[in-house]
Amino acid sequence: MDSPVNGKGVISHQYVSTNWWGDHTDPHVYLASQGVSQAQFSHDVKYGIDGSEADNPTTNPMPIPSKPVDPTTAGFGYSVMDSGNDHGHVDQWGRIGNTLKARGCHVANYKYQYVFIIDRTTGKELARQKAPGVARPDVNGAYNATGNVGYDVDFNAKQFSGKSVIVMTRTTNDAKGNISGGHQDFYEARWHIMISSNKQPSTMQ
């Protein structure tokens, strides 16, 4: 959806924010909460809710790339993680140059939000970062939540060289990101990244 040709085609809100202007947010978290996958949403945008490819033939179909155009969003179609009234989703996760980016949302009733990098092999914490809240009106609307439940943090990818890593998000009442006073964690174990020793995009496993 993020590869318009000659100004034509369907593009995402995130593409607009990244390449043009504004603060746009893709609605996939809300759609996932309603049982609509990213693939279904893309189809509906292109052909209509009741349409089909047969009803709308394409004369020059775009070839499907063997790999995602942006590997850092390759897993954003995963379902929302739920635990009672708490919800989480990783929208973007992966290496961009020397930066390891994690972007998404975590809805839970605690004071602070942290993002952790976890060694997938050992399960040990490799790094953590306090996440300034990011406004996510789409998420608040989907879950009747309040506050800035989004996060968008960057880590130095070099420190994880040669490791397979996953992202864990934590909401907690502990200002240091520990578990004192209550906490809630989401491990996105479905989306793990092997950090290579160079600046090339790391491999999604």
From TrEMBL:
<protein>
    <recommendedName>
        <fullName>N-acetylmuramoyl-L-alanine amidase</fullName>
    </recommendedName>
</protein>
<feature type="region of interest" description="Disordered">
    <location>
        <begin position="48"/>
        <end position="67"/>
    </location>
</feature>
<dbReference type="GO" id="GO:0009253">
    <property type="term" value="P:peptidoglycan catabolic process"/>
</dbReference>
<dbReference type="InterPro" id="IPR036505">
    <property type="entry name" value="Amidase/PGRP_sf"/>
</dbReference>
<dbReference type="GO" id="GO:0008745">
    <property type="term" value="F:N-acetylmuramoyl-L-alanine amidase activity"/>
</dbReference>
